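How it folds
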Amino acid sequence: MISRSFLSSIAFRLPFAIAFICFLVFSLSAIAIYGLQRARDEMAAYGLQAFTSLAKASLVSRQVSDLVSSAPFLMNSTSPYRVASESRAVVLQVDSLLKTAEPHGADQSARGFASARMVELLDLIRTQTLVLARDADAAQNHKAEAAAALGEVATGKGIVDPDLRRQVNGIVQAASTSDSLFQLGELRRRYVAGTTKAQGGTEPESRISPAELQPYERVFEAQTRYLLNMFAIRAAVAKLHAVSRDLSHATETQSDAVARQLNDDLLSTSDALSRLLVTVALAFLLVLVMAIFSIRSVMRVSRGIVALSNGMNALAKGENEVGPPAYGGNETELVRLLDAFRAFKDSVDRVSRLRRTAEAAARTIRSTFRNMNEGIALFDKMGRPITMNRRIIELFGHSGSARKLPLRRFVEPVPEIDPALLPSDPDRGALLERAVIRHRTGDQRVVEISMSRQPEGGIVLLARDVTLMDRQEAEAAKVQRLDGIMRMTHQVSHEVGNMIGIITGSLGLLERETGFNDRQKRNIARIRKAAERGRSLAGSMLSIGSQQPFYPSPVDVGSLLRGMADILEIAVGAKCHIKLELDADLPVVSLDAALLEQSVLNLCLNASAAMPLGGIIVIGATATTEILLISVTDSGIGMSPEVIDKAFEPYFTTRGSHGGAGLGLAMVYGFVRQSGGEASIYSSPGNGTTVRLSFPTGLRS
């Protein structure tokens, strides 16, 4: 029984393949001989069909000649209907011949019967005959129109004068039977002369209106068009005369050419078949001899290959005690393979040790590379991608297919990166030193991107999400700036308060004195009023600097906000409305109720100013176990990031021309900071603003 390993061996497959090829060559040779014999028979059939087709062409040519010869007689008949009927019959015959001349699929038997000139003439005959039929139909229609108009003339009573009506009717009858445009024009002149005089008559009862002459006019118009169509028919017939002569001549010429070509093709085909038969027989003998020689050589070589294969398989299985295969042949290639086998065995031993070490290191590096929180991507000196991890694809806002993008297209979502710095075939790019940029995405994430060039010219991209760090840095800088402003405001308010105290004390001493006239008293009153205004300003500066008198007490925030609703409705004006969204179980917190009310009022006034067309101001309050959150939201014009950054600063305002002093939000910020809470603004241009005040619930009583 033949084993499966023997069937899969080269010693079996190569001889089997060669024998199978010989079988295929023999089969193909037999098929070719049979096909050539059949082709010779079909050549004779092709000649017969070609002669038949030429006979059909001659028949159509005679039919066209018959039509052309009979056309003058048809044109002189009273109805062009026969011309149209005969023309359509010729068109059908020409279409049938053209269809016969076309090759169908692999059947090329009609090829050569119809030359390009014959097909062109047949198409021209078809076109001219269709024109002839169309003109005949049009002439028939115009003839019918003239007859209908004559019927109206015969039955109508349009012209009252019997002599004039008899005269005009005779002219119109003659016009309907005229066969030339000259005769028709003469009749038209007589008709116009007779009717023009009647139209300008002095007696109203004998005067002819244009409406009464309409049937007569239609007779002349229809007869004119009829004669024009008949003239076109004569022109088409003349063209068909010339084309039919050309077609007859082309048919005779093509018949002679096809006959000569068929004879030449038959002789050439017979010679080619004879030569092909001899060539196929010699090729078959040569293939048979080569196959026998190849089988003997392959069987000898295959034994050496099998021995080498067994040795390689043993090495692949990890067997260490594998000797060189035994081979007694003298083929140079196999001798060299034996030497290479010995060298390969030594290399396999070394590579096996190195591979185990490298695989362990590669697993560690691959796991680290894929799971890094920072994104990394490597590109070659032409800007083509080498490798990258998923994190950098996410940070750049790409999908998984971005792994194949070149460098410049990969960084397109980051407009801060100048593409000219990066390589792109053949441009090397202008990047020399390490460059670091920060990019803010559409969802307000901040990504720090580092670009550096490698010694071989490639580019390394590093990216990490620094949104939290950037936010913390911005908040720290903002808090530090605001706290500095608050401390400065507090110091200035103390100094201003001290100076105003000296002024008011001195004014008290002056007011006790006597002897001042009325003008001096008015000046002292002005000084007193200015001092009081200065004292009020110093007090507002203390509130901004978180140093105003602070009197905390237990406050039910929900009840306080509900109680302010009516006052807030009045304060924000008629165009704006207050909407409360308060949790049902808000805690009682220790705050200064008056300052809280003032803060909410300031926020509502700012919200109404941001909505000049009016809208709804939403006051919300929620609480967790640690934080009480109060928010004021409007749908107004919103603020840019630059305005948000400076909104809590004293005397900063965007409404300077509308009475804004820039102290409202600063006072709110000072109150919240003095209460131990935080204040934040969320806004964008055109999307409204939300101000959130958070207080620790540890302040509850």
